[in-house]
Design a protein that fits this description.
single chain; 276 residues; alpha+beta; 7-stranded antiparallel beta sheet; 11 strands; 27% strand; globular
Length: 276
Protein backbone atom coordinates (compact mmCIF):
# COMPACT_ATOMS: atom_id res chain seq x y z
CA UNK A 1 0.00 0.00 0.00
CA UNK A 2 1.03 3.58 -0.64
CA UNK A 3 1.74 6.19 2.03
CA UNK A 4 -1.12 8.34 0.70
CA UNK A 5 -3.73 9.33 3.28
CA UNK A 6 -7.17 10.89 3.08
CA UNK A 7 -5.63 14.26 3.94
CA UNK A 8 -2.93 14.17 1.24
CA UNK A 9 -3.11 17.43 -0.68
CA UNK A 10 -3.08 17.18 -4.47
CA UNK A 11 -1.68 19.69 -6.93
CA UNK A 12 0.35 19.28 -10.08
CA UNK A 13 4.07 18.93 -9.36
CA UNK A 14 4.95 17.70 -12.82
CA UNK A 15 4.59 14.93 -15.38
CA UNK A 16 6.74 11.90 -16.17
CA UNK A 17 6.75 11.00 -19.86
CA UNK A 18 7.58 7.42 -20.81
CA UNK A 19 8.33 6.92 -24.53
CA UNK A 20 9.33 3.53 -25.87
CA UNK A 21 8.65 0.71 -28.29
CA UNK A 22 6.39 -2.31 -28.00
CA UNK A 23 7.71 -5.21 -30.07
CA UNK A 24 5.50 -8.14 -31.08
CA UNK A 25 7.17 -11.46 -30.26
CA UNK A 26 4.18 -13.34 -31.72
CA UNK A 27 1.24 -12.20 -33.81
CA UNK A 28 -0.95 -9.60 -32.09
CA UNK A 29 -4.74 -9.43 -32.31
CA UNK A 30 -6.62 -6.43 -30.91
CA UNK A 31 -10.13 -7.04 -32.21
CA UNK A 32 -12.24 -4.50 -34.07
CA UNK A 33 -15.43 -6.15 -32.86
CA UNK A 34 -16.86 -7.02 -36.27
CA UNK A 35 -16.21 -9.51 -39.04
CA UNK A 36 -14.88 -8.66 -42.45
CA UNK A 37 -17.38 -8.22 -45.27
CA UNK A 38 -14.75 -8.99 -47.90
CA UNK A 39 -14.82 -12.37 -49.61
CA UNK A 40 -12.17 -14.51 -47.94
CA UNK A 41 -11.59 -11.93 -45.21
CA UNK A 42 -10.82 -12.80 -41.62
CA UNK A 43 -13.70 -13.54 -39.24
CA UNK A 44 -12.00 -11.45 -36.54
CA UNK A 45 -10.20 -8.38 -37.98
CA UNK A 46 -7.84 -6.18 -36.00
CA UNK A 47 -8.67 -2.59 -35.13
CA UNK A 48 -7.30 -0.06 -37.64
CA UNK A 49 -7.10 3.71 -37.90
CA UNK A 50 -8.66 5.88 -40.63
CA UNK A 51 -5.72 5.07 -42.93
CA UNK A 52 -6.16 1.31 -42.56
CA UNK A 53 -3.12 0.87 -40.32
CA UNK A 54 -3.35 -1.42 -37.28
CA UNK A 55 -2.79 0.21 -33.90
CA UNK A 56 -3.10 -0.68 -30.22
CA UNK A 57 -5.77 1.40 -28.42
CA UNK A 58 -4.52 3.01 -25.24
CA UNK A 59 -7.55 1.58 -23.45
CA UNK A 60 -6.49 -1.99 -24.36
CA UNK A 61 -2.95 -1.51 -23.10
CA UNK A 62 -4.01 0.38 -19.98
CA UNK A 63 -6.76 -2.11 -19.14
CA UNK A 64 -4.46 -5.11 -19.48
CA UNK A 65 -1.84 -3.55 -17.21
CA UNK A 66 -4.53 -2.81 -14.64
CA UNK A 67 -5.92 -6.34 -14.81
CA UNK A 68 -2.49 -7.91 -14.27
CA UNK A 69 -1.70 -5.63 -11.33
CA UNK A 70 -5.03 -6.50 -9.72
CA UNK A 71 -4.27 -10.21 -10.11
CA UNK A 72 -0.75 -9.82 -8.74
CA UNK A 73 -2.07 -7.96 -5.68
CA UNK A 74 -4.76 -10.60 -5.05
CA UNK A 75 -7.56 -8.09 -5.61
CA UNK A 76 -9.79 -10.27 -7.78
CA UNK A 77 -12.06 -11.80 -5.14
CA UNK A 78 -15.81 -11.01 -5.26
CA UNK A 79 -15.45 -8.69 -2.26
CA UNK A 80 -12.72 -6.70 -4.07
CA UNK A 81 -14.60 -6.19 -7.34
CA UNK A 82 -17.39 -3.86 -8.41
CA UNK A 83 -19.58 -3.91 -11.50
CA UNK A 84 -19.00 -1.35 -14.23
CA UNK A 85 -21.59 -3.10 -16.37
CA UNK A 86 -24.14 -5.78 -15.48
CA UNK A 87 -25.52 -6.43 -18.96
CA UNK A 88 -26.06 -10.16 -19.27
CA UNK A 89 -23.15 -11.75 -21.09
CA UNK A 90 -21.24 -8.44 -21.07
CA UNK A 91 -20.49 -8.04 -17.37
CA UNK A 92 -17.47 -5.89 -16.55
CA UNK A 93 -15.88 -6.19 -13.11
CA UNK A 94 -12.92 -4.18 -11.84
CA UNK A 95 -11.23 -3.63 -8.52
CA UNK A 96 -12.26 -0.52 -6.61
CA UNK A 97 -11.87 0.47 -2.97
CA UNK A 98 -12.18 3.44 -0.65
CA UNK A 99 -8.68 2.96 0.81
CA UNK A 100 -6.67 6.19 0.23
CA UNK A 101 -3.47 4.13 -0.03
CA UNK A 102 -4.75 1.71 -2.68
CA UNK A 103 -2.13 2.01 -5.44
CA UNK A 104 -4.40 0.53 -8.12
CA UNK A 105 -7.04 3.18 -7.50
CA UNK A 106 -4.41 5.92 -7.28
CA UNK A 107 -2.81 4.91 -10.58
CA UNK A 108 -6.01 4.33 -12.57
CA UNK A 109 -8.45 6.61 -10.74
CA UNK A 110 -11.33 6.13 -8.37
CA UNK A 111 -14.88 6.58 -9.66
CA UNK A 112 -17.39 8.68 -7.74
CA UNK A 113 -20.86 7.50 -6.75
CA UNK A 114 -22.35 4.30 -5.46
CA UNK A 115 -20.98 1.10 -7.02
CA UNK A 116 -22.40 -2.39 -6.56
CA UNK A 117 -19.93 -5.02 -5.36
CA UNK A 118 -19.88 -8.49 -6.85
CA UNK A 119 -20.27 -9.76 -3.28
CA UNK A 120 -21.13 -7.79 -0.17
CA UNK A 121 -22.48 -4.33 0.50
CA UNK A 122 -22.31 -1.60 -2.12
CA UNK A 123 -19.23 0.61 -2.25
CA UNK A 124 -19.78 4.32 -1.71
CA UNK A 125 -16.42 6.16 -2.07
CA UNK A 126 -16.16 9.23 0.10
CA UNK A 127 -14.21 11.04 -2.63
CA UNK A 128 -13.19 10.54 -6.23
CA UNK A 129 -9.49 10.59 -7.03
CA UNK A 130 -7.99 11.49 -10.42
CA UNK A 131 -6.18 8.89 -12.49
CA UNK A 132 -2.44 9.49 -12.54
CA UNK A 133 -1.74 7.32 -15.59
CA UNK A 134 -2.55 8.22 -19.18
CA UNK A 135 -1.82 5.69 -21.94
CA UNK A 136 -1.99 6.87 -25.55
CA UNK A 137 -2.85 4.84 -28.62
CA UNK A 138 0.26 2.99 -29.83
CA UNK A 139 0.80 3.58 -33.53
CA UNK A 140 2.47 1.07 -35.83
CA UNK A 141 5.98 1.84 -37.08
CA UNK A 142 5.48 1.10 -40.77
CA UNK A 143 9.16 0.40 -41.43
CA UNK A 144 9.00 -2.50 -38.95
CA UNK A 145 6.96 -4.40 -41.57
CA UNK A 146 9.84 -5.23 -43.89
CA UNK A 147 9.56 -6.04 -47.62
CA UNK A 148 10.44 -9.65 -46.84
CA UNK A 149 7.60 -9.84 -44.31
CA UNK A 150 5.14 -8.28 -46.77
CA UNK A 151 5.81 -11.07 -49.29
CA UNK A 152 4.34 -13.57 -46.83
CA UNK A 153 1.46 -11.54 -45.40
CA UNK A 154 -2.18 -12.04 -46.33
CA UNK A 155 -2.75 -8.29 -46.39
CA UNK A 156 -0.38 -5.35 -46.76
CA UNK A 157 0.27 -5.10 -43.01
CA UNK A 158 -1.40 -8.14 -41.41
CA UNK A 159 -1.53 -11.92 -41.51
CA UNK A 160 -4.48 -14.29 -41.14
CA UNK A 161 -4.16 -17.17 -38.71
CA UNK A 162 -6.46 -20.14 -39.28
CA UNK A 163 -7.75 -22.07 -36.28
CA UNK A 164 -10.08 -25.01 -35.75
CA UNK A 165 -12.50 -25.65 -32.90
CA UNK A 166 -13.34 -29.35 -32.50
CA UNK A 167 -16.69 -30.46 -31.12
CA UNK A 168 -15.97 -33.01 -28.37
CA UNK A 169 -19.05 -35.13 -29.18
CA UNK A 170 -19.30 -35.14 -32.97
CA UNK A 171 -15.61 -34.36 -33.72
CA UNK A 172 -16.89 -31.82 -36.22
CA UNK A 173 -14.39 -29.09 -37.09
CA UNK A 174 -15.40 -25.45 -36.98
CA UNK A 175 -12.85 -23.35 -38.86
CA UNK A 176 -12.23 -19.73 -37.91
CA UNK A 177 -9.71 -17.09 -38.89
CA UNK A 178 -7.95 -14.45 -36.84
CA UNK A 179 -6.31 -11.38 -38.34
CA UNK A 180 -3.04 -10.47 -36.59
CA UNK A 181 -0.24 -7.96 -36.76
CA UNK A 182 2.80 -10.15 -37.50
CA UNK A 183 5.64 -10.95 -35.14
CA UNK A 184 8.41 -8.38 -35.49
CA UNK A 185 6.08 -5.40 -35.81
CA UNK A 186 6.82 -2.43 -33.54
CA UNK A 187 4.50 0.14 -32.02
CA UNK A 188 5.40 3.53 -30.53
CA UNK A 189 4.26 3.70 -26.92
CA UNK A 190 3.71 6.81 -24.81
CA UNK A 191 2.55 6.88 -21.20
CA UNK A 192 2.30 9.93 -18.95
CA UNK A 193 2.30 9.70 -15.17
CA UNK A 194 0.99 12.79 -13.35
CA UNK A 195 2.77 13.54 -10.09
CA UNK A 196 0.22 15.32 -7.90
CA UNK A 197 1.98 14.95 -4.54
CA UNK A 198 5.37 13.72 -3.31
CA UNK A 199 3.86 10.34 -2.41
CA UNK A 200 3.06 9.73 -6.08
CA UNK A 201 6.68 8.80 -6.73
CA UNK A 202 5.78 5.39 -5.27
CA UNK A 203 3.52 4.78 -8.28
CA UNK A 204 6.44 4.65 -10.71
CA UNK A 205 7.42 1.21 -9.40
CA UNK A 206 3.80 0.01 -9.66
CA UNK A 207 3.57 1.03 -13.34
CA UNK A 208 6.84 -0.71 -14.22
CA UNK A 209 5.72 -3.81 -12.35
CA UNK A 210 2.64 -3.89 -14.58
CA UNK A 211 4.76 -3.60 -17.74
CA UNK A 212 6.98 -6.49 -16.67
CA UNK A 213 3.95 -8.61 -15.85
CA UNK A 214 2.59 -7.96 -19.32
CA UNK A 215 5.84 -9.09 -20.95
CA UNK A 216 5.30 -12.56 -19.44
CA UNK A 217 1.59 -12.64 -20.22
CA UNK A 218 -0.39 -11.69 -23.33
CA UNK A 219 -2.05 -8.65 -24.86
CA UNK A 220 -5.24 -8.84 -26.90
CA UNK A 221 -7.15 -11.88 -28.10
CA UNK A 222 -5.90 -15.43 -28.51
CA UNK A 223 -3.30 -15.12 -25.76
CA UNK A 224 -3.76 -18.68 -24.52
CA UNK A 225 -3.37 -19.90 -28.12
CA UNK A 226 -0.05 -18.19 -28.81
CA UNK A 227 -0.98 -14.64 -29.80
CA UNK A 228 -0.16 -11.40 -28.03
CA UNK A 229 3.32 -11.92 -26.60
CA UNK A 230 5.02 -8.51 -26.47
CA UNK A 231 8.08 -6.85 -24.95
CA UNK A 232 9.02 -3.23 -24.37
CA UNK A 233 12.29 -1.48 -25.04
CA UNK A 234 14.17 1.64 -26.11
CA UNK A 235 12.70 3.62 -23.23
CA UNK A 236 13.21 7.34 -22.75
CA UNK A 237 11.91 9.08 -19.64
CA UNK A 238 11.52 12.85 -19.35
CA UNK A 239 10.43 15.03 -16.44
CA UNK A 240 8.38 18.17 -17.02
CA UNK A 241 7.80 20.16 -13.86
CA UNK A 242 4.93 22.56 -13.32
CA UNK A 243 7.34 25.35 -14.26
CA UNK A 244 7.82 23.77 -17.69
CA UNK A 245 4.19 24.46 -18.59
CA UNK A 246 4.49 28.04 -17.36
CA UNK A 247 7.56 28.55 -19.54
CA UNK A 248 9.86 28.97 -16.54
CA UNK A 249 11.74 25.65 -16.69
CA UNK A 250 13.03 23.18 -19.24
CA UNK A 251 12.50 19.48 -19.75
CA UNK A 252 14.84 17.14 -17.89
CA UNK A 253 15.82 13.84 -19.49
CA UNK A 254 16.00 11.24 -16.71
CA UNK A 255 16.65 8.16 -18.84
CA UNK A 256 18.02 8.51 -22.37
CA UNK A 257 17.91 4.93 -23.57
CA UNK A 258 16.87 1.91 -21.52
CA UNK A 259 17.05 -1.19 -23.70
CA UNK A 260 14.61 -3.23 -21.60
CA UNK A 261 11.92 -2.66 -19.01
CA UNK A 262 14.22 -4.29 -16.45
CA UNK A 263 16.83 -1.61 -17.23
CA UNK A 264 14.20 1.08 -16.82
CA UNK A 265 13.07 -0.47 -13.54
CA UNK A 266 16.63 -0.31 -12.20
CA UNK A 267 17.03 3.33 -13.26
CA UNK A 268 13.68 4.30 -11.75
CA UNK A 269 14.97 3.76 -8.23
CA UNK A 270 17.26 6.73 -8.78
CA UNK A 271 15.01 9.21 -10.59
CA UNK A 272 11.89 8.50 -8.49
CA UNK A 273 13.58 10.20 -5.53
CA UNK A 274 13.89 13.42 -7.53
CA UNK A 275 10.11 13.70 -7.84
CA UNK A 276 9.65 14.78 -4.22
Amino acid sequence: MSSHTASTKLGLIGKLLFDGEMICETGLHIGAGKGSLDLGGADNPVVKDAFGRPYVPGSSLRGRIRSLLEQAAGLVGPEDLVYLSRRRGQEVRIHQSDDPGDEICLLFGRNPGRMERVSGEALEPSAATPARLTVYDAMLELDSITPQMRENLDDELTEVKSENAIDRVTAQSNARTLERVPAGARFRVRMVLDILCPEDRELVAKLLEGLRLLEDDALGGGGSRGSGRVRFGNWKVCWRSRGYYAGAAGEEVLVERAETTADLQAASREFAEKLS
